Amino acid sequence: MSIVMLKDVKKSFDKLQVLKGVSFSVAPGEVMALIGASGSGKSTALRCIDRLELIDSGEIVVCGHRVNDPQLDLRKLRLDVGIVFQSYNLFPHLTIEENITLAPRSVKKISRAQAREIALASLAKVGLSEKAQNYPEQLSGGQQQRAAIARSLAMEPKVMLFDEVTSALDPKLTGEVLKVIEALAASGITMIMVTHEMNFARRIADKVIFMHQGYVHESGSTDILTSPRTSELREFIGDELH
Amino acid sequence: MTTAINPGHLQFLLTGAFWTLILSLMAFLGGGAGGFLVALGRTSPFRLLRILAAVYVQIVQGTPLLIILFLIYFGLPSLGFSISPLLAAGVSLTIYVSAYLGEIWRGCLESVPKAQWEAAECLALSRTQRLFKVILPQAIRIATPPTVGFSVQIIKNTSLTSVVGFVELTRAGQLINNSIFEPFLIYIIVASIYFCLCFPVSAFSQRLERSGAARLRALKAVSA
After folding, report:
1. What is the ipTM score, two decimals?
2. Chain A contact for B197, CB < 8 A?
3. Which of A82, A107, A137 is the closest to B219 by Cβ?
4. In this structure, are residues A151 and A100 in contact, taking their beta carbons and an 8 Å threshold?
5. What pTM was computed for the model?
6. What's the half-sphere exposure (Cβ side, CA atoms, 13 Å) at A149?
7. What is the C-alpha separation between B137 and A33, in angstroms, rounded?
8. Which chain A residues are closer than 8 Å to B141 by Cβ?
9. Which residues of B touch A83 (CB under 8 A)?
10. Interface contacts (A, B; CB < 8 Å)
11. Strand A215-220 versus strand A207-212 pairing type
12. pLDDT surpassing 80 at residue B223
């Protein structure tokens, strides 16, 4: 039984078709890496899963929610899915702790004290306990990204989506964020991550999907990263390593 | 018959200034409430609301405040609604201010990055929660300097209400001048009083802008 399922998903922006019939599925607890060149459709596919983009045709089912159903209760979908963006998107007017407690308090109606406990626990998971009272602008990029991960975790989603979360960071800061994600992967939560970090994907992913020109071009275990079957993937990996 | 300016005149002017302030306050509060609705309408997900708000703004911004005043003060009574000068002035200024503040605030709402809406949406916050807990607090910071700046325009534009006979600062000056005919002296005093009302406000606005700019520079320095 899969927790995320895409079937023949098509999506265009104006005349440009970005997804040309994408199908894949993710089992509970699985860590999936979505790789591919810029413009291959991997970020769009990820955004469609959380219905940040509407699809033109096909089917997406996430945690039992039919994502493309117009009757879908979007809040229920968002309660089950957490997403972390490349640009962190913390709320600049709130402290880190307030960033994290906002949704549990206003959506789940959890008491202030309880929300605070949850916030501190998820900050501890990302190693930022001492930054609870700081504002986002006082944190480095890597710390902001870890805080954004903590904010998502505090809602206890069943599936976590990561959209190129280290692309805005330098190698040193990338490392600290990847370490957090790696620990998360070990905790058993289902994860789909769009990433350019090939070594990282090889280390923690259970499954790799290589997207090319709007299609799933190759998929399989992390072995395909070391011995790609298609010339496109071989070329892509070659480019990424340089 | 006295022809020189006396303390009674000055007191009359100060009373006028008091009404100028009351009128400005009415315009700011009424126009602020209206402007908030206009800004929400202009950024609404509903097309019809967006169109209505845009049409309202276009019509008001395309009409001189003086004509709005005439319409309300002279036009409404001809249709059978009698209206006091104070109410006419307050309503006209409210209409005028709501269109301009609405547009200023729309810009501020839209200058909060879309990604902030998206991040809040992904945390399962409802649209109202997103607006009030995430977007508005950020928009208000952006909006403060231009809003305070626009208040100066409001204070000055209340002088137009003198034409419908409302005795605010300008009208008070006119009345005194009618009795002692010292136009230069009187209008210099009137202008100075306006300056005293406006200067603190515009100085405050500039300070807000500077501190905002400094904050932005500091932010950039941190993220660089």
Report:
1. 0.91
2. no
3. A137
4. yes
5. 0.87
6. 31
7. 37
8. 93
9. 122
10. 60
11. antiparallel
12. no
